[in-house]
Amino acid sequence: INSTGGITKQGSGVLQFNAQDNFTGAFTVAAGGIRNGVTNGGSRYSDLTLNSGTRYDLAGISTTWGSLSGSGIIFNSGGTAANGGAAATLTVGFDNNPSTTFSGQIERFNDANPSWVAITKVGTGTLNMTSAQSASTGSTGAFTVNGGTVSFNNAGAWFTGTTSPAFAGTFTVNEG
């Protein structure tokens, strides 16, 4: 893909990223879903927007995007209940976008397949999390802030009613 003007994924199907790329501009999932096919599939230079009703399946494979915004669902279908599920890390913020807002859900695939989503924030920008995550369907992966700021605002909270970010195996904010 060689685009600086942005790409919009439409239609109810699922688009799988089977290669690494370095396209810039926004990548908007307007309908259906996207799925990782290889490590670092997609582009670390692109702003990923998941519109309401869309889904992003990490499929047990870690990747990096420039930034994250929108209101879709992020989940991980990788792994099986027999091996305890597999972690996959979604790293966002690589492009240093000053500020993005994600009001979607970070969920586990299902109760029988407890694969989790780990989130790592890098770069200098701010990721605003503005929706409460569900205690019944939420992910149990780690959340790590390696750069910039993560701000929980408006209704943004991890598992409302709990006393800690119980969704996370670990919640780490590194120096700086």
Distance between the termini: 34 Å
| Structure classification | mainly beta
Using only CA atoms, what is the Rg? 15 Å
Number of strands: 19
DSSP helical segment count: 0
Give the overall pLDDT as a whole number: 84
Identify the strand order in the major beta sheet. 2-5-8-11-14
* Percent helix: under 10%
Q: Which blocks of ≥5 consecutive residues have pLDDT under 50?
A: 160-168
Strand content: 35-45%
> Helices and strands, in N-to-C order?
EEEEEEEEEEEEEEEEEEE
Q: What's the SSE blueprint?
A:
Blueprint: E1 7-9, E2 14-17, E3 20-21, E4 25-29, E5 33-36, E6 42-43, E7 46-50, E8 55-57, E9 63-65, E10 67-70, E11 73-75, E12 88-92, E13 99-102, E14 105-106, E15 117-121, E16 126-129, E17 143-145, E18 149-152, E19 171-173
Parallel strand pairs: 1-4, 2-5, 3-6, 4-7, 5-8, 7-10, 8-11, 9-12, 11-14, 12-15, 13-16, 15-17, 16-18, 17-19
Keywords, separated by commas or semicolons:
176 residues; mainly beta; five-stranded parallel sheet; 19 strands; 0% helix; 39% strand
Account of the protein in words:
The structure is a single chain. By secondary structure, the chain is an all-beta fold. The N and C termini lie far apart (34 Å). The chain has a 5-stranded parallel sheet with strand order 2-5-8-11-14, with no helix packed on it. Residues 160-168 have low confidence and may be disordered. The protein is 0% helix and 39% strand. The chain is built from no helices and 19 strands.
